[in-house]
Amino acid sequence: MIAEPEPPQERKAGPANSPMGKAFIGIAGLIGAGKTTLATALGQHLDLEVHYEPVIDNEYLDDFYRDTARYAFPMQIYLLNRRFQQHQEIIWRGAGGVQDRTIYEDAIFAKTLRDQGFMEQRDYETYLALFRHMANFMCRPHVIIYLDVAPQTSLERIHERDRSCESGVSLEYLQRLHGNYEAFLAEISRLIPVLRVKWERFIKVDALANAITQEYTRGSFLREITSLV
């Protein structure tokens, strides 16, 4: 099991020393899947800077969980803006990095909110139009690592970390997210290499990092890491 990381801070690294050079790695997965833990460990192992999901300073987070219907659209716009800024900084710095949740996943959450009736169709279409315009200015990550956990496992890990604002997250919501993630993976893997990692139990990060190093250049399609040596 990967050790719990220190409190998230932007980590400066030396890409010249990384076995993956200046690779841009995105970590994807359900809420509570273990993205931050893995991002921290991979950043240390691969000597790449880590860019964390905006949680602590998210001005909408508490309001979103308190009144989801009211704050669904502003929450998604806020996250889209922050993640676009982060995504572009990784590209502009030219040093590569590990990103804790990618900008592409935001659309999964927006769709799920629309499907559940928390976001109006017109707001959802406005969000998608804005995302498409932003996408025209984005360079793609070299690889996306998808941490594949069951919705029930996700819920258990959410309860374990015990963030008060997440106390209302339901299994039904996570099940909807999981289904939308599967559709997302089928689509995004046509453009960006995706490595699906079974994450019901944590894997030693050095074995996973070695597998990622070997696999990430093999093409823009969905692959599954099934054996780690």
Give the topology.
Elements: E1 24-29, H1 35-46, E2 50-51, H2 61-66, H3 68-93, E3 97-100, H4 106-115, H5 121-135, E4 143-148, H6 151-161, H7 171-188, E5 194-198, H8 205-215, E6 222-225
Parallel strand pairs: 1-3, 1-4, 2-3, 4-5, 5-6
Helix pairs in contact: 3-4, 3-5, 4-5, 4-7, 6-7
Describe this structure in words.
The protein has eight helices and six strands. The protein is globular. The chain is of the alpha/beta class and 229 residues long. It has a single domain, classed as P-loop containing nucleotide triphosphate hydrolases (Rossmann fold, 3-Layer(aba) Sandwich), CATH 3.40.50. Strands 2-3-1-4-5-6 form a six-stranded parallel beta sheet, with helices on both faces. It is 48% helix and 12% strand.
Rg calculated over all Cα atoms: 17 Å
Indicate the CATH architecture: 3-Layer(aba) Sandwich
Elements, N to C (H/E): EHEHHEHHEHHEHE
Oligomeric composition of the shown chains:
single chain
Low-confidence spans: 1-16
CATH fold title? Rossmann fold
Structural category: alpha/beta
Q: What gap, in angstroms, lies between the N and C termini?
A: 16 Å
Query: Share of helix among residues?
Result: 40-55%
Describe the main β-sheet briefly. 6 strands, parallel
Looking at this structure, what is the CATH superfamily?
P-loop containing nucleotide triphosphate hydrolases
Read across the widest sheet, the strand sequence of neighbours is: 2-3-1-4-5-6
Mean pLDDT across residues: 85
Q: Write down how many β-strands occur, each being a DSSP E stretch of 2 or more residues.
A: 6
What portion of residues belong to β-strands? Answer: 5-15%
Bulk shape: globular
Name of the level-1 CATH class:
Alpha Beta
Give the number of helices.
8
Domain count:
1
